[in-house]
Each structure stands twice: as structure tokens, then as C-alpha cells.
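Technical note accompanying the year-one report. For the benefit of new consortium partners, we illustrate the data format agreed upon in the data management plan: each record pairs a sequence with a C-alpha cell string. No post-processing was applied to the example shown here.
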Amino acid sequence: MKINLLRTDLAEAVNNVSRAVSSKASIPALEGILLKAYGSKLSISGYDLEIGITTSIDATIQEQGEVVVSSRLFSEIVRKLPEEVVCIETDDRMITYITSGQADYQIVGMSSVEYPDLPTFEENENIEIKGDILKDMIKSTVYAVSDNNSKPIYTGSLFDISDKTFKIVAIDGYRMAVRKEEIDSDINSQFVVPGKTQNEILKLISDDENVNISIGQRHILFKIEEYSVISRLIEGTFLDYNSTIPKTAKTEVIINTRSLISSVDRMALLNSDKIQSPVRCNFSTDEIHLSCTSAVGKANDKISAPIMGEDVEIGFNNRYLLEALRNVDTDEVKMVLNGSLSPMIITPVKGDSFVSLVVPMRLSNG
């Protein structure tokens, strides 16, 4: 293989693809990226047996070929090369020569036959969605994906498509996030996409480009501009999320989102990773009194807000409450409560584009 190409194109592609590379793999080739030079394109792939990212960039190809190079070393070299034009060449022993200006490197490569094939699958269904919409939907739900592998199904989000409505649902046992959009599609499908895959997609999505999603039996493929992201789907039975949303409303509050975030943030100063005392919220007489008492001290704050229904005192983990509030996209939210032990519902004041549930912490009498 012998090619010339632009350093900035190569650096961006390698940086994005490398995020799918395994840092510690039983197969040494999986700690590398696969370079394939054919025609007028250099194809670059990273794969960790769960998620694969592939892209192609323009290159002047003098000799076609393939090689696997260390992802960590190659990306560092490319990032620090002095000139814009880069020459990459491999010999019969897979020694890879990288030249730019007066700088040159020789690194040990591997044969591409040692690199596992990325999955291929038969496409069952396909949808196309605007990049800014998908980006917003993932951002407003992925925070609630579980990081507990004891229940793998909840380490991903449910993508629920039916009746021209697309919902993404994430739940971890302490909170739930649902985001809904109307789409122009007649398919009816449910599948669970790993949280890791969604986080990688977020980094690639451009607001003004459409994303094409191909759905198979066990895999899903996202085509985002010049990138293809293939991922396994998580198998299992996802919770009937509709049944977990309380249908009653004993207390309703409409409040400015930013004001509530700021107040909870002030209470959170008394908590840390080692100290987790609940933020106590007392809803009474058109006022929310927030307080927190921990081993390091006490804090109090008040926010004026119209409260409809019963008075209630309820406690929350400050991180869970803040994440729910920070991932809504409206200036005001409506909070619905059903006593001190039922989950609090957070919705827009008008419409139902999102629903967030936060499970309360039990408060001590003191």
C-alpha cells in the first residue's frame, strides 16, 4: 500500500473511528484500526465486537492494499505530524512508513486477515430522520440509561416506532426518560440500542444532515454523512414503560426550569460522591422550600411557584433530579406529584414531547 492524503482529513477520521476500538482485547488486531486503500478512497474502520465505526476519505492511491495499525500510536502520530500532506506506505512485512515534511515514522503493522469482519445483516426495516431531531432525542434520554450490567436490557434505550411516532425510552430503576417525535414512516418496530452506541452517534451527528437507520434482527446500522456505525442490539424484554407512569395528579407545579436547576445546584454543594443526603423539597402555599442537611452542614432556599393540589414534602438524589431537569428543552416544566413516595413526573407545560420520572429518596423524620 502506498498513498498520499491530507493530514486534517486523516486526523479527524482516525479520531472518530478510534472510539470504537477496544483498549484491551483478546484479539490483538482489535486494538488497531483497519486501513484499506482502493480506488480513490482510504477506508478506516474501528471495531470492538459490539460497535463498529467506518468512514472513507479521499486519497491519492499509488499502490492498493490493507494494513492494521495500532489505534493509539497511529492517532498520536497523525495528530502531531508537521505538514498537511501525509504519505503512508507498507512493505511485505507490514512495516508501515508514515512521512510528513521532515518527520517520518516506521511502525509495526498487522495483516488485515487478522482483523475480524464487521457484521453484515439483512435489513428488515429502514427509517430516515433529521440529524438535529435524533440528536435532541438521544441527548434528552441517554442520561437515564443504566450502567449496571446485572440487567443488560437497561444498558440501552428502547427505540419504539409505531403509528408515525418515534419514541426513545431509557430507564435505570431510579429515573426514566421518554422523548417523542412524529415521523414520516409507516414501520412498526421496537429494539434496544446500547447506550454506548448512542453516545458515539451523538459525536458524529450533524444538525443539518439526515441520518439513515437500517434495522436488522440483531444489529442496527446508522449512516451519518461519511460515517457508518454498526452496533449489536440488546436482546431481552424491556419494561412496559407506559404502565410505570402514574395516571393521577395530587399536586401540580409549573416552574421556571433554570430557576429550579440553580436552586437544586445550591443544595448539591453539600453533597459529594461519598455524601449523598437527599434534597428535601417542601411544596406548600405557592412556594417550594428546598433544604439539604449533610455531615458538612445545612442549606436552605425558596422558590415561588403556583402549587395546585395537596401540600407534599419529598426528597430526591440531587444528581438524578438535576440530570432530569438539565435534559429538558423548555423554559418551564410541569411537575406532577402523588405523595412523598411516588415518582415525580416532569413534562412540558404544553404537549407531551417528553416525560421524565424521578424516584424519590425516603426522608427521615428529622
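Partners are asked to follow this layout when depositing records. The chain has three domains: 2-114, 125-193+204-237, 245-358.
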